[in-house]
UniProtKB/TrEMBL annotation:
Transmembrane residue ranges: 21-42, 164-192
Span of domain HAMP: 189-242
Record Gene3D superfamilies: 1.10.287.130, 6.10.340.10, Histidine kinase-like ATPase, C-terminal domain (3.30.565.10)
Gene Ontology, cellular component aspect: plasma membrane
Keywords for the protein's UniProt record, in alphabetical order: Coiled coil, Kinase, Membrane, Phosphoprotein, Transferase, Transmembrane, Transmembrane helix, Two-component regulatory system
One Pfam short name: HAMP
Enzyme class: transferase
Protein name per its UniProtKB record: histidine kinase
CDD domains: HAMP, HisKA
GO molecular function, one term: phosphorelay sensor kinase activity
InterPro entries, per the entry: HAMP_dom, HATPase_C_sf, HATPase_dom, His_kinase_dom, HisK_dim/P_dom, HisK_dim/P_sf, Sig_transdc_His_kin-like_C, TCS_sensor_his_kinase
Catalytic activity: ATP + protein L-histidine = ADP + protein N-phospho-L-histidine
């Protein structure tokens, strides 16, 4: 398998900056908590050791005071009593004579060491060893008589305390990390929701809904200020675009009347004159005027479509019927041009929109394919139901096609490929197609047909 086969697509939220900020927030918070608990653990460990040393010192001092006050026999009774009462693996006691013989206690005789020291030993009960050896902390003292007294505590008790604190620390750290992550995710989710609102609005504006604006939350924070500035910028851009569009529409509208008057004069002159050369010039001028009037008419029609006023007339209609009508009309045109025309239209595909505009859009696409394909080329038209039952239309040819770098430009007004500048046309046919598609929320995709061009309409 290739490397892409095993790739895993992470959920969208996981790939957001807000989620990364939440992870960073949780990591910093967890590290701070770890440092705090590490310090606490060290202090508890030190405190436990200090307490054990202090406890041994107090107990040895009490026994020495008992010896000073009541003598060796009383000390032996006290040590024996404490040894019998002590747990076998918790507290150790030893009283031995100068010869190293045990007088009392629950551990075997040992070397007489003074002060604090550690030693591995085993407890004795009833003359027998009880339990395994354990490491204990002892405090020893040599009596004036040469006898030796030692009291010890098993270090495992201190280790148990450290283990308990460590377990509490690990559990608390895990809970803290989860809470920090949850808090970061909640905070990030709110941030993402506001960014999503901005992105959705921007997407709709890019899609042609220029009146859309970013909603404000009323918090007057940085995002609200950014949204307000973006809205003001969009208002300014829309005003400029409307001004430019109005100028072009006014020019197209105002020039139609004098051009129409000029056309009528040329027609009257053509009817009156008998000069063949003058007649030819007049006919050529009439063709040019008709072309200009057609350009103005296309501009005005595109402007009308872009206002969105035609949406009020949207109705349910049979989209298959529109495709069949266009295929019947242009099948004969393709035959006259010695081209092959193929149609594959699925019956009964419904749509809601403007039937007249859809007819014009499809006619422009088919006419564009026929016009720019040579004799012997094949032009095909297809309509089918896509995912979810949504219509999918295709107009394809095996002509010269459109270079990939120019596919996004062909829908601009007056844009023409360099090779087509010598042919008839005004460069507005595909602009009208784009306007109708935008009005109906149809996504147009230009793809390579290998060879030729394929225009996909996703309703």
């Amino acid at each position: 398998m290739g490397p892409d086969t095993c790739s895993v697509t992470l959920p969208r939220f996981v790939r957001t900056a807000a989620f990364r900020l939440a992870i960073l927030y949780a990591a910093i918070f967890s590290f701070s908590t770890f440092a705090l608990f590490a310090f606490t653990y060290w202090r508890v460990q030190a405190y436990g050791a200090d307490q054990m040393r202090a406890s041994l010192g107090v107990e040895v001092a009490a026994l020495l005071e008992e010896h000073r006050r009541a003598g060796l026999d009383r000390l032996r009774e006290e040590v024996e009593g404490r040894a019998n009462a002590a747990e076998s693996r918790s507290s150790f006691y030893l009283l031995q004579n100068p010869a190293g013989e045990r007088l009392a206690g629950n551990i075997p005789p040992a070397e007489a060491l003074e002060g604090l020291y550690e030693r591995r030993t085993s407890s004795i009960h009833g003359g027998r060893q009880s339990g395994g050896p354990a490491v204990a902390l002892f405090r020893g003292a040599v009596l004036p008589s040469g006898d030796y007294l030692a009291v010890g505590r098993v270090l495992d008790d201190l280790g148990d305390l450290n283990t308990l604190v460590l377990r509490a620390f690990v559990g608390s750290l895990a809970v803290t990390a989860l809470l920090a992550l949850a808090g970061g995710v909640l905070l990030g989710a709110g941030f993402v929701r506001r960014l999503e609102a901005i992105n959705r609005t921007a997407h709709r504006i890019v899609g042609g809904h220029l009146s859309e604006r970013i909603p404000l939350q009323g918090a007057d924070d940085e995002l609200d200020q950014l949204s307000g500035n973006l809205n003001a910028m969009l208002d300014r851009i829309q005003d400029l675009m409307e001004s430019m569009r109005q100028v072009s529409n006014d020019v197209a509208h105002d020039l139609r009347t004098p051009l129409a008057h000029l056309r009528r004069r040329l027609e009257r002159m053509l009817q009156k004159t008998q000069d063949s050369a003058l007649q030819d010039d007049a006919e050529a001028a009439l063709e040019e005027i008709d072309s200009i009037l057609g350009t103005f008419q296309a501009l005005l029609r595109i402007a009308q479509i872009e206002t969105g006023s035609r949406r009020a007339g949207f109705r349910a209609y049979d989209l298959s019927g529109v495709f069949e009508t266009i295929c019947d009309a242009y099948g004969a045109v393709a035959e006259d041009r010695q081209q092959r025309f193929i149609s594959k239209v699925e019956a009964g595909v419904p749509h809601v929109g403007d039937r007249e505009l859809m007819t014009q859009m499809l006619a422009n696409l088919v006419e564009n394919a026929l016009r720019h394909s040579p004799a012997g080329a094949t032009v095909s038209v297809e309509l089918r139901r896509g995912p979810g039952g949504r219509p999918v239309g295709l107009v394809s040819d095996d002509g010269p096609g459109v270079p990939e770098a120019e596919r996004d430009k062909v829908f601009r007004r007056f844009y023409r490929l360099e090779r087509n500048r010598t042919t008839s046309g005004n460069g507005l046919g595909l602009s009208l197609v784009a306007a109708v598609a935008e009005l109906h929320d149809i996504k147009l995709k230009l793809e390579d047909n290998l060879p030729g061009l394929r225009v996909q309409m996703l309703f």
